[in-house]
Amino acid sequence: LLTPAISLAIVFLFLAATQGNSIGNAIAKLSAPVLAIPHAAAAFALALLLAPSGVASRVIASLLGWDLPPDYLFINDPNGLALILGLVLKEAPFLLLISLAALPSLGAPRRVALARTLGYKPTTAWLLTVAPVLYPLVRLPLFAVIVFASSAVDVALILGPSLPPTLSVRLLEWFVAPEIESRQLASAAALLQLVVSLSALGIWLLFERVVARAFAPLAARGASRLSARRVTYDTALTALGNALLPLSLAFILIGIGALMLTSVGTEWRYPALVPSVWSTQQWTSALSEWRAPLFNATMIALLSVTAALALSLFMLEAQARSSVSTARIATFLYLPLLVPQVVFISGIAVLAERALLPPSLTLVAAGHFLFVLPYVYLTLQGGYARFDTRWLMLARTLGASNTVCFWRIRLPLLSTQLVTAVMLGLAISLSLYLPTQILGAGRIPTLTTEAIALVSSGNRSTIGTWALLQSA
C-alpha cells in the first residue's frame, strides 16, 4: 500500500507544481525511457547506487574523508524499505505517463483558474480541483500497481528481505522445488497471496472513501483569510513536487551509469569514485553467452506482441464496424493485471501440466501474451476513440470496402499508436521474469532470467554487464 500511495503522491505533486511548464514537459519526456528500463535492471541500479559501498556512499566519503563504508543494511533489509523504494522509482513514471494521457480531456487550466478566484495558490488549486477528476482515470492502473507491488518477485529477489523472504518469493521457491510436498505448499501459498492482494485492494478502497469524505469540505470552504500559513503550505508542496520526481528519475539514471562503470571495472576499492583497473573481460564473456538468451527473449517478445496486436485490432475493428460492444469481453483482458502474477502464472503452469504441454518457447510466449495484451489493447483503444471516421466515410463514397478502408485508411492513420503499442509490448515482454521462469521450467533462458540468476553470485561486474544487456 505504501508503493501506490507514495507513487501517486509524487506524480500528483509533480503535475500540480509544474502544470505543463517547459521544465515539467522536459522531465515528463525523460520518464518514458526510464519506464522502458526493466524492473530488475532498475533494482540492480538502485542497489549499486545506495548500498553501503555504493556510488552515493563513495561521493559522501570523498567529501567527509571516510575510509570505511557506513554500517547500515540497504539491500535485503528486513523492513523492506529498499524494496518499497525500488518499486516506487519504477511505478511513479508509469503513473505519470498514464496521468499525462488523461489530462488533456479534463480542462485543467480552467479548473485551476476557477479555484484561484477562491483564493487558492496554484499548486493547492490543482490538487483540489484537477486531482479529484484525474484520479478516476488512473484508478485501474493504480489497482494494477497495488497488485504488482504486493506480489512482485523479480524486484523482491534483488532488493527485498531474504530471511524470511516475501511471500511471493517463497511461493516461487516452493513451486519450482522438486519435492511433491512443496507443490502443495505452493498451492496454499498462492491462495494466501491472492487473499493478501485482494485485501490490499479492499483497504485501498476504504482509504479512498475516507479521503473523499475529508476532501469535499476542504475544497468547498475556500482559502482562509490568514494566507501566510497557506502560502507557506503551497510553497512546500510546490518544492516537493518539483524535487521528488526528478530525484527519483535521477536515482535510476545515475544507477545505470554506475552499472556501466561496474561492468568495465575489475578493481574498485572503497572509497574511490571510479574503478582503478579497467577491463572488458566481463563483456567478452557475456557476449559469448548471450546469443541463446537474446534469441529466446526476442522470439518470445515478437510472438507475444504480434498475437496481442492482431487480437487487439480484431476486437477494436469488430466493435467499430458493428453495434455489438466488446467492452465486457475487454474487461477480461485486464485480469492478468489485477491478479497477482505469481498466482496467475502458477495456475497456468498447473493447467499446462494437466494438458501434457511440455515447457517450451511457445508456451512461454503464450504466457507473455496474456500480460502484453492489456497494454497493447489500451494503447490502440485510445487511437480508435480519437479516430476521425470522416476519412472512412469519404473512402466508402469512392467505393472502398471495409477491408480496403482498414488496410489503406485506418492503419496508416493509426501508425503512431501502432508503433507505440509494439514498442510498449516489446519492452514489457523483454522484462517479464515469472512467466519465463515458471512456464519454461528454467529451460528457456532469457536476458532477464540470466540477470536475476546472478543475484546470489555477488559479482558486481557480471551483474552490471547482464543488467545493461537486459536494459539495451
Layout of helices and strands:
Blueprint: H1 2-18, H2 22-36, H3 39-50, H4 55-64, H5 81-102, H6 108-116, H7 122-129, H8 131-134, H9 139-151, H10 154-159, H11 167-176, H12 180-220, H13 227-263, E1 265-267, E2 277-278, H14 281-289, H15 291-321, H16 327-331, H17 335-338, H18 341-354, H19 361-385, H20 390-397, H21 402-413, H22 415-431, H23 434-439, H24 447-453, H25 460-471
Antiparallel strand pairs: 1-2
Helix pairs in contact: 1-5, 1-7, 1-13, 2-5, 2-13, 3-5, 3-13, 3-25, 5-9, 5-13, 6-7, 9-12, 11-12, 13-25, 15-19, 15-22, 19-22, 20-21, 24-25
Detailed description of the structure:
The chain is mainly alpha-helical. The chain has two domains: 278 residues, MetI-like (MetI-like fold, Orthogonal Bundle); 187 residues, MetI-like fold. The protein is built from 25 helices and two strands. The protein has a two-stranded antiparallel sheet with strand order 1-2. Helix 1 crosses helix 13, helix 2 runs parallel beside helix 13 and helix 5 packs antiparallel against helix 9. The chain is globular, with a radius of gyration of 24 Å.
Provide keyphrases for this structure.
single chain, 472 residues, mainly alpha, MetI-like fold, 2 domains, two-stranded antiparallel ribbon, 1% strand
CATH topology of the largest domain: MetI-like fold
Mean pLDDT: 82
- Main sheet properties: 2 strands, antiparallel
Radius of gyration equals 24 Å
**Overall SS class:** mainly alpha
Looking at CATH, the homologous superfamily of the largest domain is: MetI-like
Poorly predicted runs are none
Number of domains: 2
Shape: globular
- Enumerate how many helices there are, as a single number: 25
Instruction: Please give the number of β-strands.
Output: 2
Distance between the termini: 31 Å
- Strands ordered across the widest β-sheet: 1-2
- Percent range of helical residues: over 70%
CATH architecture of the largest domain: Orthogonal Bundle
Order of SSEs: HHHHHHHHHHHHHEEHHHHHHHHHHHH
The first-level CATH class of the largest domain is given as Mainly Alpha
Strand content: under 5%
